[in-house]
Design brief:
The protein is α+β, with helices and mostly antiparallel strands. Helices cover 47% and strands 25% of the residues. The chain has a single domain, classed as Nuclear Transport Factor 2, Chain: A, CATH 3.10.450.
């Protein structure tokens, strides 16, 4: 009987450790898979896939109205990814930056064309429907 109780306790302890470490690993893995898919879609110019992987409203830089839906997103696609920088060149080399205080969000920094290092910031957030592109900002403005 003692052996059975110890076995149950061991299973409970191992399950608790697994439950504590698994979400972080799952989050990191899902972030990597999402980022690879999103980045590849931008590089290929696949606006439909990029729009489907975006969350609305999409926050925009100071002075520009947030994008509320897919139609607005498609209309502003070039502004978001190619107006001040070139996301298709930046994204394949970019590494997601995760704030340890907010593991459900990561950012990608890209340089403005012809100059300043990483003032363009793309924000991605994990919600009920998985990871989504949720914001774009020129951090120098």
């Amino acid at each position: 009987m003692k052996l059975a109780i110890m076995g149950v306790v061991l299973v409970v302890l191992v399950s608790g450790v697994y439950a504590q470490t698994s979400p972080r690993t799952a989050t990191a893995d899902s972030m990597k898979v999402f980022w690879e898919k999103f980045s590849a879609a931008v590089v290929k110019g696949d606006k439909e896939t990029v729009a489907a992987l975006s969350g609305y409203p999409l926050s925009m830089p100071y002075g520009i109205k947030d994008i509320r839906n897919k139609a607005q997103f498609l209309k502003n696609y070039r502004t978001i990814f190619f107006f001040e920088g070139n996301a298709a060149k930046c994204f394949p080399k970019a590494k997601p930056m995760v704030d340890p205080q907010n593991p459900k969000e990561f950012t990608i920094g890209c340089a403005i064309t012809g100059g300043i290092d990483e003032p363009l910031q793309y924000t991605f957030t994990r919600g009920r429907n998985g990871w989504r592109f949720t914001g774009f900002d020129n951090v120098n403005e």
